[in-house]
Amino acid sequence: MNPLLESPLRQSASQTVAAVDLGSNSFHMIVVRDDGGKLHVVDRLKESVRLAAGLSEDGTLDPDSCARALACLERFGQRLRGLRHDHVRAVGTNTLRRARGADDFIARASEALGHPIEVIYGAEEARLIYGGVIQDLGTDSPDRLVVDIGGGSTELIIGALAEPKLVESVSLGAVVQMQRFFADGRITRKGWRAAVMDARLTLEPIARAYRDAGWDVAIGASGSVKSILRAAGAERADETITPDSLDMLARAMIKAGRVDKLSLPGVSDDRRVIFPGGLAVLTAIFESLEVQSMRVSDKALREGVVADLLGRLHDHDAREQGVKSASGRYDVDRGQGERVADTAIRLLGDADDYYDEDTGPMAVRLLRWAALLHEIGLAISHKGYHKHGEYILRNADLQGFSRADQAILATLVRLHRGRFRVDILDALAPQWRVTAERLVVVLRLAVILHRGRNPQAVPPARLQAGKGGLRLLCEADWLAERPLTRADLTREAEQLARAGITLKTSFIDA
């Protein structure tokens, strides 16, 4: 069988997976063994890297922060040696989303870790955080508000059971608030009030929607929230944070006057240096959303990444739901998409050598999703709908997708018709350019073969790839009855020739 088309279900019953979270303050890694659905944590690592502190106003990462990050990832990488790439998922969050020209750093970081690193959108980060936190909860079904305060962003999710219903990622973080309001180490009443008010202003556009949605229980999920619970004197993990405990901590900080004079129970030196920033963000959340109490979870993004990764390995890929949701939202013709997808995958499978070993396991999924969504731009206009589709897919919040995944998906949709733009392919990550070009070709051919939109039609066509280029083999009678398809294929051969790709069409007997 073509390795590209092997099922992800071909996995052993027991397997080890790992998640790496490149947060704005700390880097985390968790290694988990899955024994037939029973999960056992076999290793955890955490290092305070403070990547957000090295992000300058112009969006560049300073050399010292990059060096700390790369050294940390080399240590993490030693623990991950021997694990397959599809058993490791490493995600970058707010700081890497904001960093200008981060591609070079991400390439070096991936090399240091020994596994690819993907940058995820804020909404996807929030979804994964929620998926991690709910592992701590029972099967009751109250609505939950989940809050995760990171170094550079804060995620807020309201959901019930496994389904997030309201998801936001805002540019608020413990490290960022420290830099803006307590950079000199002083903690004054005026500076404190300014930090809280700034956070409230950032939350203002979403606060009413969250208050109106309501929730039954609020849960905090981050190092900042956990340190606040400990600093408030909690002796048990099931205790809660209240407005009174936040006020008490604020008064204690102002009385201390300086960060280096803070003496807080259970708060490490690494956490103390950003404690005022995290407390300001949580105080603003309590005030803006009118939170009365908050429980604290030990689980967060990394546990959510593990759950998502195991879903992918067991053929429950969250990205499938993301594609389905986008298809419904933009009223895409699902039947036409399925027909194009089936033919594109069949053509890809015909050409045994027409894939790349490094990207093969993911390529067929991206081809299918692109086929399902290739007409998404029709929701805007028929004229240039492939360009509209590209814009939607580059900018929409697609469940389960990283920024790199969406870039490939958007590229396939953009190039499924019209001029074959090699420069658009060149903008992809180097390891994807060859595979993406080949996926574009089979998608374009599948779209042509299904231009008639006949629900019963299964084009009798096969694809051959060789040194001389591509050869599309079609049944002579079928093609003779379709002069428009013949003309489309002739035009397509001309389009591909301009990009240096040879396509010939040959007749075969039925």
From TrEMBL:
Ppx/GppA phosphatase C-terminal domain: which residues?
319-492
Pfam families given in the database record = Ppx-GppA, Ppx-GppA_III
Domain Ppx/GppA phosphatase N-terminal residue range list: 30-311
Q: Which UniProt keywords apply?
A: Hydrolase
CDD domains in the record: ASKHA_NBD_EcPPX-GppA-like
InterPro entries in alphabetical order: ATPase_NBD, GppA/Ppx_hydrolase, Ppx_GppA_C, Ppx_GppA_N, PyroPPase_GppA_Ppx
TM region(s), chain numbering: none
Name the chain's protein: Exopolyphosphatase
